[in-house]
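Example for tutorial group B:
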């Protein structure tokens, strides 16, 4: 039996070798120059022959190959598979399969093998295997799979939405993030038109953008409101890109990346609000604020523009920093700019600055390093200190006035004594110059006047110790009038007192109240350089008050001055102290009274209301 099997095998081998020889002769070129490896195996799995391509990949020469058994060509874990297919081929089936082969130097090669049964005289005598090296193909496939997997991970997991549409805007693909961003599942939006999800007001913009993508074949950005499944709208930023057919250069589809920017917009809005607040803070700051870089002025607030005398802010922007700093201060300004540039804040420093009209003023300036439009810059604070300087000067002056007052008191005292002596001698002489009586009367009355003025001076210059006493307001006003009359007459002014009732008794510090009316009357006189009329009207006001109205026919005060009078040291006069009204207000308030001012171009009216003394006080 064995003998006969052997015999059959041998017979088949002979047939195979004949077949190979015969065919090799016929198809030599096809066999030798074939890119694929071709090798022939007998039904027992012994290699019979291989072409040059087989020699190449296996590393075995044909002679060496003829000594090989099939299993030696394949790694252990592939041998079974190879034999399985080989047996099927021996049974007459054409087989195609992938497997790995081990070459002579031990390297693994991926092959795709097609087994072709060789049949001679109706019996299978061997198998011809055509093997293609698919190592590179497999590597490329693997690469491709990796890329695809990466893309899948990307599209599935990034928060942005990927969407692919056809030229009509119908959605062909949408990434799973659709559900997260819009609430719709991918299935719900597929085949729908992407424009139908846009806010009506944004559709036109989107269509225009889309046309540009299709027409210009370019990438375009846009931002639109997109409706979510819940019916709300989110703001989204999109980047659309055409997919172009490399052969026809026609756009096939449009791919867009959609990003939800609602949160970002909210943050930006908050930031803008904050910025607005800061801008307002700076814009309406009582300090003048300017932002500069090198010699350029980049920003100035209203106070700053006013300080520099600009009507329009633009007028300032055309100026250089150097042009608003007095040349004497250029050197120091340069040094201080260096300090700020190095990142430090400077202290307030007194500069002389120049307004747009060329006038010079003194300002305190501080500089802080900052950023403006993302670039380093200097934040400059300027304070006009002209007023403060003036106040300091006036304080000094009022100190001087105080001294002058004391001096006046001293002089008044000194003059009074010799006056008493003169008066005495005058009386003696009067008897001896009969017939010249009227001269003496004049001298006497003038002397009385001198005495009165002196005593007023004395009273006024005494230190303020409040001494309340009951006083008849009419006689108080009359005595003030006497005091002020000379000055009034010199200025061509007439003072008229009108009192419709008697016994206007108040409780007051006589000297202080006199001071109030002297201040009021002096102001009135000073407001009438060309003369005029002052009327002082006294009357009952309600049942327990007295009203005093002082009217002048002077030049009056415009509203912006009227609102400021009574501020300490506020004056419009060259030699004014700006203290008169302030002191007067204070005194009236100390007497539980009120003082009001009205003024127009025709003159000024001052109303003083004081409480009347209680009846007991009169006893
Ligand atoms: P001064 O008389 O030293 O200026 P005052 O406090 O007495 O200070 O007055 C302040 C300012 O009020 C004056 O400079 C003047 O401009 C204005 N004023 C006061 N009274 C009158 C008045 N009767 N008519 C016009 N202006 C007046
Ligand atoms: Mg005054």
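The residue assignment follows.
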């Amino acid at each position: 039996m064995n003998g006969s099997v052997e015999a059959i095998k041998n017979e088949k081998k002979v047939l195979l070798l004949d077949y190979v020889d015969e065919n090799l002769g016929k198809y030599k070129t096809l066999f030798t120059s074939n890119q694929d490896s071709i090798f022939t195996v007998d039904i027992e799995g012994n290699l019979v022959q291989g072409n040059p391509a087989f020699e190449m990949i296996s590393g075995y020469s044909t002679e060496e190959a003829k000594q090989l058994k099939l299993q030696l060509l394949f790694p252990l874990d592939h041998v079974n598979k190879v034999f399985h297919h080989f047996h099927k081929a021996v049974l007459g089936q054409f087989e195609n399969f992938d497997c790995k082969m081990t070459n002579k130097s031990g390297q693994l090669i991926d092959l795709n093998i097609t087994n072709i049964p060789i049949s001679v005289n109706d019996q299978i005598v061997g198998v011809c295997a055509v093997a293609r090296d698919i190592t590179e193909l497999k590597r490329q496939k693997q690469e491709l799979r990796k890329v695809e997997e990466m893309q899948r991970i990307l599209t599935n997991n990034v928060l942005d939405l990927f969407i692919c549409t056809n030229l009509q805007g119908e959605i062909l693909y949408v990434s799973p993030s659709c559900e997260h961003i819009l609430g719709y599942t991918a299935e719900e939006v597929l085949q729908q038109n992407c424009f139908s999800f846009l806010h009506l007001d944004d559709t036109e913009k989107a269509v225009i953008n889309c046309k540009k993508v299709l027409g210009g074949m370019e990438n375009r950005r846009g931002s639109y409101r997109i409706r979510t499944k819940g019916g709300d709208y989110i703001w989204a930023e999109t980047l659309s890109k055409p997919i172009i057919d490399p052969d026809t250069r026609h756009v096939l589809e449009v791919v867009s990346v959609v990003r939800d920017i609602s949160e970002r917009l909210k943050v930006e809005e908050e930031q803008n609000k904050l910025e607005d607040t800061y801008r307002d803070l700076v814009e309406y700051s009582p300090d003048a604020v300017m932002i500069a870089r090198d010699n350029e002025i980049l920003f100035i607030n209203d106070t700053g523009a006013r300080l520099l005398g600009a009507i329009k802010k633009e007028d300032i922007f055309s100026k250089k920093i150097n042009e608003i700093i007095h040349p004497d201060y250029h050197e120091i300004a340069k040094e201080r700019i260096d300090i700020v540039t190095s990142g430090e804040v400077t202290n307030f420093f007194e500069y002389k600055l120049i307004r747009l009209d060329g006038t010079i003023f003194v300002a305190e300036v501080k500089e802080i390093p900052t950023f403006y439009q993302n670039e380093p810059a200097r934040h400059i604070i300027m304070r006009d200190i002209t007023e403060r300087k003036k106040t300091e000067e006036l304080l000094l002056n009022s100190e001087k006035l105080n001294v002058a007052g004391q001096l006046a008191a001293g002089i008044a005292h000194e003059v009074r004594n010799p006056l008493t002596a003169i008066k005495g001698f005058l009386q003696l002489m009067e008897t001896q110059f009969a017939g010249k009586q009227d001269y003496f009367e004049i001298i006497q009355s003038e002397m009385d006047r001198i005495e009165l003025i002196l005593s007023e001076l004395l009273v006024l210059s005494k230190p303020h110790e409040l001494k309340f006493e009951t006083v008849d307001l009419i006689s108080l006003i009359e005595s003030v009038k006497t005091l002020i009359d000379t000055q009034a007459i010199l200025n061509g002014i007439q003072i008229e007192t009108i009192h419709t009732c008697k016994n206007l008794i108040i409780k007051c510090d006589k000297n202080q109240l006199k001071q109030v009316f002297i201040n009021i009357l002096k102001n009135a006189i000073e407001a009438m350089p060309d003369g005029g009329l002052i009327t002082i009207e006294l009357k009952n006001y309600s049942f327990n008050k007295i009203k005093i109205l002082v009217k002048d026919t002077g030049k009056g005060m415009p509203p912006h001055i009227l609102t400021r009078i009574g501020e300490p040291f506020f004056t419009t006069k060259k030699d004014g102290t700006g203290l008169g009204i302030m002191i007067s207000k204070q005194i009236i308030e100390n007497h539980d009274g009120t003082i009001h001012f009205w003024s127009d171009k025709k003159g000024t009216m001052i109303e003083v209301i004081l409480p009347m003394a209680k009846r007991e006080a009169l006893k």
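The mean pLDDT is 87. Compare this with the pattern of hydrophobic and polar residues in the output above.
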